[in-house]
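Support reply, case 0932

Customer input (verbatim):
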Amino acid sequence: MTTKTQAESSSEGRAHYLYGIVHEDGGGLPELAGLGDAPVRLVREGGLAALVSDVPGPRAVPTRANLLMHQRVTEAVVREHTLVPVAFGTVLPSEERVRELLRVARAPLSRALSELEGRVEMGLKVYCHGDALTRRLLEARPELARGPSELEEDHETRLEAALHDYTRKDLDGLKAGLRPLAEATHEAPPLGERMMLNAAWLVDRTRVAAFEARVHSLVARLDAYTFRFTGPWPAYSFVDVRLDVEPASTAP
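Our regenerated output:
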């Protein structure tokens, strides 16, 4: 006879909100509260474990509180465990469906865990200050000043090309300086006119301090830009696993 645990019994009839996937034998979790302050627990299957908490309905509303709670759970777990993070809003109707997901996606999830083993994501966004950058460039290259007979439109075109080349060299130098301390790099499209770089690096947890020090050293030389350096995060930018599960089969 199989005896259900108290957690399993209390979760019957409730949907399961999914935060991410870890190794089944990766050790215990810290005590964490998830969406609606429900306790986060592990559902284990085939060497994998899903981080879940009970939710009352089939969907999670993307309120600020819920988004922050999802983020806090995944951040707390990734400090000590290798985690394949799942995007906000993944809800499965039962614990058996969670187990089915782990069975169906076992191969890609295991591969992703292997690729992310001991690694976290660090993010860096770079914004330019157009006027400051233009002044810096004209100081370095006086020949870029507008000539007495040069049309304003022609000068703007020439200056814009020079600015593009100048910023590209700065950013290439920044990325080259960080590359030796990272396992992989991912660049997303910049957001807005002022953003010049929107990048993430996959960094071994043991090298995070060295990576942070290198970032601060490099950006100190680039005072015509503003930087937003974040992390460590779950490695969302380096996960490409689809968690599609067909409806669980039922007896006729």
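We compared this against your earlier run and they match. Two observations from our side: The longest strand covers residues 119-128. Residues 15 and 58 are 6 Å apart (CA to CA). Please reopen the case if you see a mismatch on your end.
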